[in-house]
Amino acid sequence: MSEKSKETGVLGQLFKTFFAKHWPVLVGGIVLGTLNILLFAIKSPWGASGGINNFGENVYRLIGVFGLENSTHLSASFYGMLCLFLVIGSFIGALLSKEFAIRIPPKGELIKGFIGGGLMALGATFGIGCTIGAFFSGMPAMSGGAIIFTIGLFLGVIIALKYLMWEMEKFPGFSTGKSYIFLAGTGKSGNWQKWAGWAALIITFIIAYQYSGGNKIMTWFIIIGMLMGLISQRSRFCIVKAFRDPFMTGEADGSVGVMAGLFIGLFGFTIIKYFGIGMGDIALRTREMTWVFPHFFFRAAIGGLIFGLGMTIAGGCAVGTLWRVGEGQVKLWASALGFLIISPISKLFIVPPIVAAIPQSWDFKNYLPDYLGYAGAFALITLIILIWYVFVKWNEKTGKFSAY
Amino acid sequence: METKVDQTLDCKGLSCPMPMMKLAKAVKGLKSGEVLEMLGTDPGTKSDLPRWCNKTGNTLLDESELSGGVSRFLIQKK
Question: Pairing mode, if any, of strands B7-11 and B35-40?
Fold first, then answer.
């Protein structure tokens, strides 16, 4: 740990503030919540599963299957580019802190990554959204469906955690075996990582700038995506952790970080919706209904449950997968691959027949302020966050629901 | 002075949550005062492990960086 440190200058100290140690996840949550508001102000809130679906559509278009000739090119897809630069931002964060390495886990873990990614794709396409779109953004958007999705997530996480613990007891060999690490940045010989990090940062800004002539929104989606990846990597911002750890080690820090981001988002989103900020040519009602999806209640419940199972087995939700891809965790490469391969297939062939079979009254857009008014909806979401907070803090102390 | 290691847990290549789950299980199997050496490559462990020790009352005796991106932790059971 203790490298001989020369006298560090002011800029060196500033650099260390960001890249010597991990940030408290609370800081990560607050900054990500703020960036989420900015995304909404520019266009629409943060989402991740749509971007990964776009990756998949681009792959299938290149191969020439499923008739996806008219799908949006990655370079023109806001959420595709947001996700791509989230990976790059995490890559930059990992390089600058010399934490990047290609980490290849035992085979069983790769299989779990792929299956987890596939399940997340099924959950996100059926549930219309992931832990970001239908939770981290959906709750602040005051969508009733988001609350249902979140309950589904919780159940999925608890079931999958039980499975992981069972697997570790009965089949410990599944997560043991030969592993390989490449390109690690330990010691002086790893200093190339810092230079590579700066280079990648500069390239990101050049690409963002190139869009600024014709597509200013994309410029900001690229920059914000990069920042989101970098911040997630530095603060280990992880929604799986937020849901899972109270039931595993009893840790509450991860959950509290996510709650902070949720609450900040709620504050900003409410203002944007209430005043119709950034409406452009669309009607106020359309702006209000942003990120309120037609999934209340059935699609949200089932989608959330399946997504919760998938993200826990994979060890990262859509965003948690993306930023871990950027720091070189190959299990999550398998998860991203499973996600992007299954997502378009599910969207085209699996979801439509099921949706056709369920009554419309099971799946509509539930906008909480329509029932409770803005004040009531704001208070309800705040109350939910508060109850969750009290639960994780109480559980942290008593360990009532923790496995270890 | 080199601490006597009673058991070694190899978590190289594993991603969250496997290292922490395996660690919790391994420490459960130790007797009080025994020392576990854990080797891991998930950057997350560097913040998760000290917090977990803090919470559970086990002692993190040492944390060091080996070559090849491997972190080594020595944990003494309460």
Answer: parallel
> Which tokens is A400 given?
């009532």
User: Along the 404 residues of chain A, how does pLDDT read in single tens digits?
Assistant: 444 556 789 999 999 999 999 999 999 999 999 999 999 999 999 999 999 999 999 999 999 999 999 999 999 999 999 999 999 999 999 999 999 999 999 999 999 999 999 999 999 999 999 999 999 999 999 999 999 999 999 999 999 999 999 999 999 889 998 999 999 988 788 899 999 999 999 999 999 999 999 999 999 999 999 999 999 999 999 999 999 999 999 999 999 999 999 999 999 999 999 999 988 888 899 999 999 999 999 999 999 999 999 999 999 999 999 999 999 999 999 999 999 999 999 999 999 999 999 998 999 999 999 999 999 999 999 999 999 999 999 999 998 998 87
- Domains of chain B by residue range: 7-76
Residue A329, chain B, CB below 8 Å: the answer is yes
Choice among B12, B13, B16, B33 that is catalytic: B16
Neighbouring CB atoms inside 10 A of A89's CB total 29
Interface confidence (ipTM) of the complex: 0.93
Which among A81, A120, A132, A72 is positioned nearest to A291, based on CA atoms?
A: A132
Q: How far is CA A195 from the centre of its chain?
A: 27
pTM confidence score: 0.95
Tokens in use for A104? 């290849």
CATH fit for domain B7-76, picks 2.40.10.120, 3.30.110.40, 3.30.710.10, 3.90.190.20: 3.30.110.40
- Residue B13 is nearest to which of A180, A240, A249, comparing CB atoms? A180
Nearest CA in chain A to B24: A404
